[in-house]
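@channel sequence for tomorrow's demo:
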Amino acid sequence: MSKAPAVDYALKIIEFLAGSNGEAGISDICNGLNINKNATSRVLDALMEQKWIYLSNSSQKKYRLTMKPFSIISKSIEENNVVKISRPYLEQIHSVLGDSVYLGIRNGDNVLYQLHFDSVKDVRINGCVGGEYPLYCSAPGKVLLAYGDRSDIEEYFNSPTTKRTDKTIVSSETFFAEADNIRKNGYAVDDEEFAKGIVCIACPLFDSNGQAVAAIGISSLTLYDDIDSLINEKYPMIKDAAYNISLSLGYKEDD
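structure tokens (generated this afternoon):
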């Protein structure tokens, strides 16, 4: 606990409401966060006064988040230079391919979507801005992990990883070879490693220091694509966009 416990409680409650199907009562919050009822009630009153939450069910005392936190986050994201530069390129890819298209950055052990355009196909993958996925089994996550330090990869895999499918990489030794291929090819794939039936391809975005600061890519279903079709038919468009975005971020190729 920090020196400002009320702030800690408020942040925890906001996170709890965001991850509890959007609605929760005082007892749900107290039990879920191990916070006493009096403290919870005071924080909820303050959040309501500041328009961060509202009573969605007054008889059952159920609370929901308002759009205020999302609007604040959206403003911050829109001011992000990578997002501003990437948006028109991703919109173009989306208009041509109709697949799920995204921009992701690293957020701890996950990749965090800062842009996401949903597939327009009949059967589609759900995704959203603010969505997070594990680094080790998602195409953009693998990109960001592969372009980091070897010691970072070792440290990452020191923590337990779930073998989500029979293709999921769960050891640093296996991922080292994967990382070599990613850096050699300039892209990473998720060949049903996160979930059965989902395939993805992603490319890094480089800044003026040559660091991979983000990744862009597309997700598809095995109903429409396999890894070969992603690489042969769709990767060139992702590659060109990633290259142009990187140039706009100040990236310079080695002479």
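heads up for whoever presents: The mean pLDDT is 86.
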